[in-house]
Write a structure and sequence with these properties.
Strand order of the largest sheet: 4-5-8-9
Protein name: Kelch-like 25
Order of helices and strands: EEEEEEEEE
Number of domains: 1
Shape: globular
Keywords: Kelch repeat
Low-confidence stretches: none
InterPro entries: Kelch-BTB_domain-containing, Kelch-typ_b-propeller, Kelch_1
Largest sheet: 4 strands, antiparallel
Mean pLDDT: 82
Distance between the termini: 8 Å
Strand content: 35-45%
Radius of gyration: 13 Å
GO biological process, one term: protein ubiquitination
Length: about 100
């Protein structure tokens, strides 16, 4: 099992992202997101991780970004019609491969 964290908090925005391997109890830094974010939301679907919403400092984020673990890269998928704060996602309950 793996857990992913990304972005910052109310003190700062960050583009950094990390993966935690529950079996080895190890954190690994993965590729940076396309932009700094805080208070974003994420979900896994298929073999991808999607992030949307949040803030860039005081500006609201209107992009949906996708992480591909095979290439360790993030790409902007689309711009959403309005900012997503707060928001929720529904997943297909698939997991990301190791």
């Amino acid at each position: 099992s793996q857990i992913f964290i990304m972005g910052g908090d109310t003190e700062f925005t960050a583009a950094s992202a990390y993966r935690f391997d529950c079996e080895s109890n190890q954190w690994t830094r993965i590729g940076d997101m396309t932009a700094k974010r805080m208070s974003c939301h994420a979900l896994a679907s298929g073999n991808k991780l999607y992030v949307a919403g949040g803030y860039f400092g005081t500006q609201r984020c209107k992009t949906l970004d996708c992480y591909d673990p095979t290439s360790d890269t993030w790409n902007c998928v689309t711009t959403v019609p309005y900012s997503l704060i707060p928001t929720a996602f529904v997943s297909t309950w698939k997991h990301l491969p190791a």
